[in-house]
Amino acid sequence: MSRLLKVIVVEDNPELCTLYADCLNSDPNITTVKAHNLAEAVALCQKEPQVVILADLTLPDATGVQAMALRKEAPGATFIVITGDINAADAAKDAGAEAVIVKGDPESIGSGLIRTVRNCVTAHEMKLLFAPGKAVIEKQGESLKTVKDKIGQLVKNQN
Prior knowledge:
The protein is of the alpha/beta class. It has one domain: Response regulator (Rossmann fold), CATH 3.40.50.2300. The chain contains 5 helices and 7 strands; from the N terminus they run E-H-E-H-E-E-E-H-E-H-E-H. The protein has helices spanning 14-25, 38-47, 69-73, 89-94, 111-158, and strands at 5-10, 30-35, 52-56, 58-59, 62-63, 78-83, 99-102. Strands 2-1-3-6-7 form a 5-stranded parallel sheet. Strand 6 (78-83), helix 4 (89-94) and strand 7 form a beta-alpha-beta unit.
């Protein structure tokens, strides 16, 4: 049995917001709340920081990566961007989005949207789970590089 996921749908277009929410609500293990601007979304994130955020990047009170401020409000949330601007995808990923869905893509509605949300939640949880180990490995890698550099310097000085 799947656990219950709570998704905040952030979309200023009321019809699209309802379409995405209805699509996600068709899965009995997903509940949604709607926000039509960044301020509403921030208030919801402060109440429920462990959620999934499905956010448009063009909102009345924020555009582009400004909308990614939600990421800071709910650092434990799974963040998915849905946008009509395919060029915004790289910036959204760099700012911490687990996925970018392009409006109009068949995967942006129906079972594709549900699948994307579930896959992103899994990926986000795995990232959080392995983050401590990754930090240790990176630190060890830095230490090994330092040792290697010192040995290289000693060998160079010997010659």
